[in-house]
Please model this.
Amino acid sequence: MNAYRNLAKLILSSCLLILLSFFLVACSPNPSKDIYRGAQFLFDTEVFIEAHGPGAQEAGLKAMGKMTTLDQACNIYSLDSELTALNQAAGEKPVPLSDDTFFLIQRSLEAAKLTKGIFDPTIGPLVQLWQKAKSLETLPTSEEIRKVLILVDYKKVILNPDLKTAFLPTTGMSIDLGGIAKGYAVEQAINSLNQAGISSAMVIAGGNIGTINTKPDGTPWRVGIKDPQQPDCIIGYLEPSNQVVDTSGNYERYFTQEGKKYGHVLNPRTGRPTNGFASCTILTDSPTMADALSTTLLILGTEGLTLINDLPNTQALLIDSDGLQFMSDGLKDLLNK
Model:
């Protein structure tokens, strides 16, 4: 499986680099050190950075390097990643982590507390159960789900800030950061670019899109929101400045069993996929929290808008499986159509 996975990454990365090279040659006949555009395949998706300003080339490469390091550390499918080492040591011993991995897990637990466990990074055993069921073209039994749910509890994770260690106290527990790692990586890249004095940038990791200021010409960055029922169509645009737009959806990643679609977002309360809402878009200041919140609202649905309305500088758009739209209090004035 890993061999096919690595081959797919290599092929897609090569295609991205070829397209990027063509774009740079076509659009920038005199490449400047003040412009950087780079793409890689990380976190199982396309990652792209565009940066403008003095030293943008060096700053962009450094930011991309940070994202690459995070991907390597948090890849649960890699035998030598930090996250794999942590999961393998569950029930046995604490595991020392790099600063970034430790802080990412710390942020994931903060998100879990904020959402009262609807976002739960210890959902790993449940993810594995449904992945196995998908590969066998079947569905987990209620008893299998019940046994796995016992292992899902973010409150059990033990962090030691002084030693930078993490411990999963129960054998079989595992952390899966797929619902927050892309956002954290975008946030770290944005921070790195800001520290380098970059005046204009956009960083993309899948559905998580962070920005610095506006485009170089002063016009706003525009992020389109797809229509889940017609993915080639845009229902509107947001114009983030020093903000992030994050969209999670069930309409692109799912499997069908016995004539029913099952999305990839799992509800840690029920142990089953959530299918009532097709997509959720979050507009906020933190790419990390945007990633976790978009997953949370796909599970909670309109109930989650109460949470969003209580958070500063945060807006949300939910689209259900029938195409109906539900917005937080302040989004209507920000959504351009």
Confidence is low (pLDDT under 50) at residues 1-30. Residues 2-27 form the longest helix (26 residues). Residues 195 and 333 are 32 Å apart (CA to CA).
